[in-house]
UniProtKB/TrEMBL annotation:
<dbReference type="InterPro" id="IPR017555">
    <property type="entry name" value="TriPribosyl-deP-CoA_syn"/>
</dbReference>
<keyword id="KW-0808">Transferase</keyword>
<comment type="similarity">
    <text>Belongs to the CitG/MdcB family.</text>
</comment>
<dbReference type="GO" id="GO:0005524">
    <property type="term" value="F:ATP binding"/>
</dbReference>
<comment type="function">
    <text>Involved in the formation of 2-(5''-phosphoribosyl)-3'-dephosphocoenzyme-A, the prosthetic group of the acyl-carrier protein of the malonate decarboxylase.</text>
</comment>
<protein>
    <recommendedName>
        <fullName>Probable 2-(5''-triphosphoribosyl)-3'-dephosphocoenzyme-A synthase</fullName>
        <ecNumber>2.4.2.52</ecNumber>
    </recommendedName>
</protein>
<keyword id="KW-0547">Nucleotide-binding</keyword>
<dbReference type="Pfam" id="PF01874">
    <property type="entry name" value="CitG"/>
</dbReference>
<dbReference type="GO" id="GO:0051191">
    <property type="term" value="P:prosthetic group biosynthetic process"/>
</dbReference>
<dbReference type="InterPro" id="IPR002736">
    <property type="entry name" value="CitG"/>
</dbReference>
<dbReference type="GO" id="GO:0046917">
    <property type="term" value="F:triphosphoribosyl-dephospho-CoA synthase activity"/>
</dbReference>
<keyword id="KW-0067">ATP-binding</keyword>
Length: 290
């Protein structure tokens, strides 16, 4: 069993983490131009989503993230009690999201990924991204006996149909799409002198090159997933979103995804997870040492 330091009540840290998670979701939604996704330009490949709805959904989840952070530092061990508490809070968060959006699934994958990361960061003495992702993976690997019987999700059906890993495995493996692709490309693009929004777009594209995104698979099958991954690779190979050739390739990818009715919603969630882990370095010193 992985243990962690005994934690004193840390309300400021939990609130700060909830702020960070909501900010990451809003910044992901606002980032433009994202291929196939909702952004400042419009609804992408979606008919039932738009930017105000994504923003309202993100804001509605603040209390969910704060409660998850509090649950994590009230428990001494990363054990099944914590896992099942987080599962119940996650399902309550999904209900809050659906009440806010009148039934539209805006952030199910994000509640899962960011919820685990917020919980992992709530009571960790060390805040480096790899360490936090490993702690989140540890929690995600613990079975949740509180899962109610339900019809198979989109993710479960396409994972079974195509034999790929989905959101659950991405978390259980320690968020490799974020740790090995999103964060390194975010930092390399910044180091290359690119503007922050280009660095974030490049991070999204790096995630898209690798991810078996069940949103893309559900809507467009393996053909759409291959087009998504190859199109994202083409933008990065052309010099990234800040370059002239990269922008043209990004436009072509957007056109392709719209024609396929495909949307990389899983990659968007993992960009938000990347921004959350990146933002941990800015935790104020008084909260860090609380
Ligand atoms: C373990 C869960 C994540 C459930 O996973 P599962 O795969 O069974 O369920 P899905 O309902 O399909 O949700 C998974 C969502 O995760 C995102 N995602 C997709 N691929 C990946 C990936 N490879 N890695 C990481 N994340 C991924 C994605 O979320 C985004 O897409 C959502 C819209 O999806 P969908 O409804 O299919 O969309 P549309 O195509 O628009 O639908 P139609 O219009 O066609 O009808 C959107 O929400 C984005 O967020 C996947 O959808 C977990 O959710 C779970 O067990 N929850 C229970 C409670 C719990 O434990 N909570 C957390 C405690 S910390
Ligand atoms: N910007 C976005 N557009 C569509 N689906 C998403 N899921 C998470 N972020 C999204």
């Amino acid at each position: 069993m992985m243990s962690h330091v005994a934690c004193l009540p840390l309300p400021k840290r939990c609130e700060w983490l909830a702020d960070l998670a909501v900010d990451a979701l809003i910044e992901e939604a606002n980032l433009s131009p994202k291929p196939g996704l909702v952004d400042r330009r419009g609804s992408g490949a979606h008919r039932d989503l738009d930017l105000p709805l994504m923003q309202a959904s993100a804001l509605s989840l603040w209390e969910t993230f704060r409660s998850m952070a509090e649950a994590a530092h009230e428990h001494v061990d990363l054990d099944s009690t914590l896992r099942e508490t987080l599962g119940a809070l996650g399902r309550q968060g999904e209900r809050t999201m659906l009440a806010t959006t009148a039934g539209v699934n805006t952030h199910r994958g994000a509640i899962w990924a960011l919820g685990l990361l917020v919980a992992a960061a709530a009571c960790s003495p060390r805040l480096d991204p790899t360490r936090i992702a490993e702690r989140a993976a540890h929690i995600a690997r613990i079975p949740d006996r509180g899962v109610p019987p339900a019809a198979a999700s989109h993710g479960q059906s396409v994972c079974a149909r195509f034999g790929v890993d989905g959101a659950r495995e991405q978390a259980q493996q320690g968020f490799p799409a974020v740790i090995e692709h999103g964060l390194p490309v975010l930092n390399a693009s910044r180091a290359g002198g690119h503007a922050e929004h280009h660095a974030r777009l490049d991070a999204l594209l790096a995630i898209m090159t690798q991810l078996s995104d069940t949103c893309v698979l559900h809507r467009g099958g393996l053909h759409a997933l291959r087009q998504t991954q190859a199109g994202a690779r083409a933008v990065l190979d052309a010099g990234g979103s800040a370059s002239f050739a990269g922008r043209r390739a990004l436009q072509r990818l957007d056109d392709t995804l719209l024609a396929l009715n495909a949307s990389p919603g899983g990659a968007a969630d993992l960009l938000a997870a990347t921004l959350l882990l990146d933002g941990l370095q800015f935790m104020p010193a008084d909260i860090r040492s609380e």
